[in-house]
Structures are given as C-alpha cells and as structure tokens.
C-alpha cells in the first residue's frame, strides 16, 4: 500500500490527515506507534480522534516535497504501516544528518 499512497492520494477524500508541521511527520516516522493520550498537540490529536478505526493516509508537504504515509487508527493509538525501506527513504528526504544518525543508532 505504501508504494501507491501518493498515487491514490488525489482520489481519497475522507481518510486523510494533513500534517501541518514537519515535526509531527518526524514524530510519527520515528515512533511508529503513538498513543493518542501522549500527543501534546491538541489540534493533531483532534484530527486523529475524528477518524474511525481503520487505515488512513497522513500527508505532509514541505516545499516541493509531498508525501503520504499509510497509518492505522486504533481506538486510542495510531500506528505507522510502512516498511523499514520506506522509513529510510523518509529519513533521507526529511531528516537532518543528526536526526538520521540518532535514529539509526537507536535501532
């Protein structure tokens, strides 16, 4: 699914969460599983709370870079549904060298 996420994005109208901050995107990629009660940004938490349980796309646009990541909403958490190869691609595309090195060392 992740391979086609950006391709099907124009055809999806309801199960999308637009991430307004690059920091939110990075947090989801690094943590992979986020308990909604731990989210400090109440606006982002509200976007996730509006969704019913199931898969959705979280999108980010930074300059000319635009991506969508496949996620799953549980009752009180969201989980990244992306392979390690895709995560490494996001690390190269959106993370600084220091952030990338810290993430790779933590694995």
Could you describe the 3D structure shown?
- This protein is of the alpha+beta class and 107 residues long.
- It has one domain.
- The chain contains 5 helices and 5 strands.
- The chain has a 5-stranded mixed sheet with strand order 1-3-4-5-2, covered by helices on one side.
- The mean pLDDT is 90.
SSE blueprint and pairings:
Elements: H1 5-8, E1 16-18, H2 22-31, E2 33-35, H3 42-50, E3 54-62, E4 65-73, E5 77-80, H4 84-94, H5 97-106
Parallel strand pairs: 1-3
Antiparallel strand pairs: 2-5, 3-4, 4-5
Summarize the structure.
The protein has 107 residues and is an alpha+beta fold.
Features:
5-stranded mixed β-sheet; globular; alpha+beta; 107 residues
- Major sheet: order of its strands? 1-3-4-5-2
Give average pLDDT, whole number.
90
Distance between the termini: 24 Å
Helix content: 40-55%
Q: Biggest sheet, open or closed, and with what strands and sense?
A: 5 strands, mixed
**Count the strands?**
5
Instruction: Note the beta-strand portion.
Output: 25-35%
The structural domain count equals 1
